Amino acid sequence: MSVVSSRNTAIIALAAVAALAGCSSGAGTSSGGAGKPVKIALFLPESKTARYEAKDRPLFTAKIKQLCGDCEVLYYNAEQDPAKQQQQVEQSITDGAQVLVLDPVDSTASAQLVTRAKQAKIPVIAYSRPILNADIDYFVSNDNYQVGVMQGQALISALKADGKTEGNIVMINGSPTDNNAAQFKRGAHSVLDTSGFTIAAEYDTPDWSPDKAQQQMDQAITKMGAGDIAGVYAANDGTAGGAIAAMKTAGMKALPPITGQDAELAAIQRVLAGEQYMTVYKPIQPQAEAAAELAVALANGKRPPANLVNAAFANGRKDVPTVNTPIKTVTQKDVLPTIIKDGFWSPQQICVDQYKVVCTQAEIR
Predict the structure, then answer these.
(1) CA distance 296 to 304
(2) Which of 48, 189, 300, 304 is the one with CA 20 to 30 A from 292?
């Protein structure tokens, strides 16, 4: 990911102005014209990752309503189907969408969706995942390379804390059609490849499917034996859950350190229980709200807040004005001062059934 420094701030500003100028003819006013509502379309890629329906959608919608009382959110979930997402984009254009906020199923193939939107003079904000080689107006995400770096560093730190300086690591990466997964993997490799540990098995996980991650972990256990796995790099919490299920089925009572990201509820419970070593907490509220602010500004032909854009992403077509939101490593000791403090999950949500004991031990009440 290409992140600009302060000396390139002028480039971002110029790009932002150009984006607004280029799309103003397709954006509506706050009343949508003739009393019609402004329509902003939100496209999410799938529902297997819990954050999308539980966090992104409601937070984005709430911020839109706060900023623009007569704005209407057209919502679509592609269920990991690029063809379905294409149909949804076409439907949104037919239904009068004035801004598209698009989290692509396929970061490369989605360039044609941007081309279609631009033909209709509709601006496009890439959300969470980039859209490559396309004339998108803004990108809202995290520094995904750094996510992978943080995961790799946490895994090696955990292994060294256990007195290990070598051993086999299994890598369970994300979807091969998601450019973010490639960034996570690249960041993780930058740490793991020089760590002294051996990447003995590596898989890409179609659709980010926990079930497929479980099958991959089964294969790794069969290949090298349960006792020869020192650690597991799992790209997100869903794949971590699949890998943990495989290890438990194989009878592994002492699980090796395993990574994740997204701070899903089940993952936080596993972290507290000592089954998953860490997750990367990416506060979704600032990401969803930044996308909403950009969308409302574009819909009304206005400039977004000057301090919102803080980076640029080279997507192969242009340096896209980008909002990178913060990320944090969360291990067992970090749950209370981050996840609980921020209200991401409440003690009542986390501390149920068998997790009541570990919550008490972590002083989560």
Answers:
(1) 8
(2) 48
How far apart are alpha carbons 188 and 104 in whole angstroms?
23
84: closest CA among 114, 56, 61, 104? 104
Query: What torsion do the CA atoms of 308, 313, 318, 323 make, to the nearest 10 degrees?
Result: -20
DSSP run (H or E) holding 171? strand 168-172
Amino acid at position 208, single letter? W
Task: Quickly tell me which residue has 């949508």 as its tokens.
Answer: 32
CB 232 within 8 A of CB 152: no
pLDDT for residue 61: 98
Distance CA(301)–CA(298), nearest Å, equals 5
Name the token pair of 302: 């206005």
Mean pLDDT computed over 274-289: 96
* CB within 8 Å of 286: residues ≥ 6 apart: 325, 326
Summarised one tens digit per residue, pLDDT across range 59-71 is 999 999 999 999 9
Q: What is the pLDDT of residues 130-158, one digit of tens each?
A: 999 999 999 999 999 999 999 999 999 99
The pair of three-digit structure tokens given for residue 270, joined into one six-digit string: 């596993």
Q: Whole-angstrom Cα distance, residue 17 to residue 350?
A: 44
Q: What single-letter DSSP state applies at residue 258?
A: B
How many residues in total does the chain contain? 365
* 0.85 surpassed by pTM: no
Q: What is the pLDDT of residue 36?
A: 79
Handedness of CA 212, 52, 263, 271 (dihedral sign): negative
Bridge partners, 44 (sequence order): 77
